[in-house]
């Protein structure tokens, strides 16, 4: 059972890569018969093209055929920045529409919603034997009214929670804090810093940056895989509308005695209260075993 130990209560302050890539992630409804996809979702669903916002069609591939083809393909043992920098590749995964203006992003998402509704109508028609085309007037190919997306007043740094992992960076340093590229299965994991991602607040990236500084001066190794040992693990940062910032640092105690564990707790507390990490101005800091 995880145990949260409160370490520090610090001064409180009051008062895409492309549209096609984004739309392909909505694939479960792009293939007839896959509407109840929550129970059985085959691994190739993201390969099915959904949106009508982009030109061209993707060939629908049956689940079994797709699985057989995947098994026969050899995976690369290492993942590298083939068609862009590490930062660009990470942005393409986390925020796939980042290359478009906000107005263009809304258009792409609106087209994706229309595509989903068309699939729902088709599914209901087949399920109930209802001719949707004659039962109601159609607007833009839909029998129901689809309102435009209401733009958000905040389009950058809008996340209130960020989870940062610890692993080897592009330079091979295992004490790198950021987001993953690659897969564990292929042993191709690379941890890339996230300070360029538009959806993460500057405060979250600042805490992650200083956690990395702490790790690189700590004598203890990070815990990359449980069976390989190591201690320091992921970081969670949360902020609210009042400007309060909470950080949760996960630590694997391994075989450390309570006295040795206390030394590490005191070290991380001191770093973020009176050390270099004090500039993060954390409201609260938690140590999770």
UniProtKB/TrEMBL annotation:
- Matching SUPFAM superfamilies: S-adenosyl-L-methionine-dependent methyltransferases
Q: Which residues form a coiled coil?
A: none
> Keyword annotations for this protein?
Acetylation, Methyltransferase, Transferase
**GO terms for biological process, alphabetical:** methylation
Which superkingdom is the protein from? Eukaryota
| GO MF entries | methyltransferase activity; RNA binding
InterPro entries the UniProt entry points to: SAM-dependent_MTases_sf, TRM2_met
What name does this protein carry?
TRM2 tRNA methyltransferase 2 homolog B (S. cerevisiae)
Species this protein is from: Neovison vison
Q: What is the lineage of its organism?
A: Eukaryota, Metazoa, Chordata, Craniata, Vertebrata
């Amino acid at each position: 059972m995880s145990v949260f130990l409160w370490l520090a209560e610090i001064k409180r302050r009051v008062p895409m890569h492309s549209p096609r890539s984004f739309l392909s992630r909505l694939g479960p409804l792009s293939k007839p018969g896959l509407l109840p996809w929550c129970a059985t979702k085959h691994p190739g669903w993201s390969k099915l093209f959904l949106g009508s916002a982009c030109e061209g069609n993707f060939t629908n591939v049956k689940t079994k055929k797709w699985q057989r083809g995947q098994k026969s393909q050899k995976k690369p043992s290492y993942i590298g920045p083939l068609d862009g920098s590490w930062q660009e590749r990470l942005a393409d995964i986390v925020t796939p529409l980042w290359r478009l203006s906000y107005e263009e992003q809304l258009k792409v998402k609106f087209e994706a919603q229309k595509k989903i509704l068309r699939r729902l109508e088709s599914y209901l028609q087949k399920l109930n034997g209802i001719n949707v085309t004659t039962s109601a007037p159609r607007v833009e190919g839909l029998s129901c009214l689809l309102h435009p997306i209401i733009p958000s007043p905040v389009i950058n740094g809008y996340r209130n929670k960020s989870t940062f992992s610890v692993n080897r960076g592009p330079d091979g340093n295992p004490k790198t804090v950021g987001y993953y590229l690659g897969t564990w299965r292929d042993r191709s994991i690379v941890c890339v810093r996230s300070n360029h991602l538009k959806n993460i607040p500057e405060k979250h990236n600042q805490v992650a940056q200083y956690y990395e500084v702490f790790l690189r001066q700590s004598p203890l190794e990070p815990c990359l895989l449980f069976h390989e040992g190591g201690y320091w693990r992921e970081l969670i940062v949360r902020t609210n509308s009042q400007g309060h910032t909470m950080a949760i640092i996960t630590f694997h105690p391994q075989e450390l005695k309570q006295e040795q564990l206390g030394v590490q707790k005191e070290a991380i507390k001191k770093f973020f209260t009176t050390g270099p990490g004090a500039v993060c101005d954390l409201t609260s800091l938690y140590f999770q075993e």
